[in-house]
Write a structure and sequence with these properties.
Elements: H1 3-13, H2 15-22, H3 24-27, E1 35-38, E2 57-62, E3 71-78, H4 86-100, E4 105-111, E5 120-124, E6 129-134, E7 136-139, H5 154-158, H6 170-184, H7 188-202, H8 206-215, H9 217-241, H10 244-266, H11 271-278, H12 282-291, H13 298-307
Length: 308
């Protein structure tokens, strides 16, 4: 699962909390009577034969009693700031405004990693400005994790490992994210899903995991339990369905587990290697799951992939 997809799931599962964190001023008007709906991600083609342009997550906020006009949020998450285009975002917002017949559009951008990105678009000439566009943007890596350790906003708690903190605070931050998941998420299925989310962004290697387990045994046990249930769930689904779809889902679950173990063993797995691993057949995934116990660094993973 890519980082973009991880955040997309989080936004769709917890839209109110997402807007409260990343668009706080606009979200103040979204009371219990408002309804938040995800809308079509594929934008209309300008010409036949063109590929669809896909937005991250557009959300429509409606007040069924008519107290307020509908408000459209266009959320875009960027793992790599170099991929962000403010021109594309402006284009998407204008398309949606035209499609839904509204001028009430709020563009929201979430950046995970440092980099250069424009905060404003100003089109015109030396004589006049003809189009001005800006967005609400949050550099998640600049938010101070310590300020959200006890937050009641589940999105803030789950994204703690992506925020700013001192190296010696890393275990405290991961533990707070884990407690947030158990305290604020009542749905067992979502707990399983977002335990994986925390694990991906925590990026603990094997030595760090052992140190974390000693310092926060309860939280480490919780995460281990979630991981085991996540994997067993995938296997059971494969066994029960007995069909290709079920087997594929079981393989995906086992692949996620192997990738988490690799993160702890050799550090963050580069995307090019992650894609290779995700394409391996089940037999090789099982072999990798056994062989990685002998890995001591990234070179061992590179050598293993070269042999397979």
């Amino acid at each position: 699962m890519s980082h973009d997809q991880n955040f997309k799931n989080l936004i769709l599962d917890d839209p109110r909390e997402t807007l409260a964190l990343f668009a706080a001023a606009e979200a103040q008007a979204i009371d219990a009577g408002a309804r938040i709906l995800p809308i079509r991600e594929e934008q209309l083609k300008e010409r036949l034969g063109e590929r669809f342009r896909e937005l991250d997550v557009p959300l429509l906020v409606e007040w069924p009693d008519g107290r307020r006009a509908a408000l459209l949020f266009v959320l875009e998450e960027e793992t790599d700031p170099k991929r962000f285009s403010i021109h594309r975002l402006a284009h998407d917002c204008l398309d949606l405004a035209e499609l839904y017949g509204t001028d009430r559009v709020v563009p929201v951008v979430i950046f995970l990693h440092p980099g250069n990105y424009p905060e404003r678009l100003d089109l015109g000439s030396e004589h006049s400005h003809y189009l001005q566009f800006s967005d609400l943007h949050t550099a998640l890596f600049r938010l101070q994790a310590r300020e959200y350790l006890d937050s009641k906003n589940i999105v803030a708690r789950l994204t703690l490992p992506t925020m700013a903190f001192a190296p010696e605070e890393k275990f405290e931050v991961i533990a707070a994210a884990t407690r947030g998941l158990t305290e604020l998420e009542p749905d067992p299925e979502r707990r399983l899903k977002y335990a994986d989310f925390i694990d991906i962004y925590a990026m603990l290697d094997e030595n760090e995991w052992e140190a974390y387990r000693q310092r926060y045994p309860q939280e480490a046990t919780t995460m281990t339990s979630f991981s085991e249930r996540f994997t067993e769930q995938g296997r059971q689904q494969g066994l029960q369905q007995g069909l290709q779809q079920g087997l594929q889902q079981g393989l995906q679950q086992e692949t996620h587990l192997v990738l988490r173990q690799l993160n702890r063993r050799v550090g963050s797995v580069p995307d090019v290697y992650r894609q290779r691993i995700e394409s391996l057949p089940v037999e090789q995934i099982e072999t990798l799951g056994e062989d990685l116990l002998d890995f001591t660094g990234p070179a061992d993973l590179e050598a293993w992939l070269a042999r397979h």
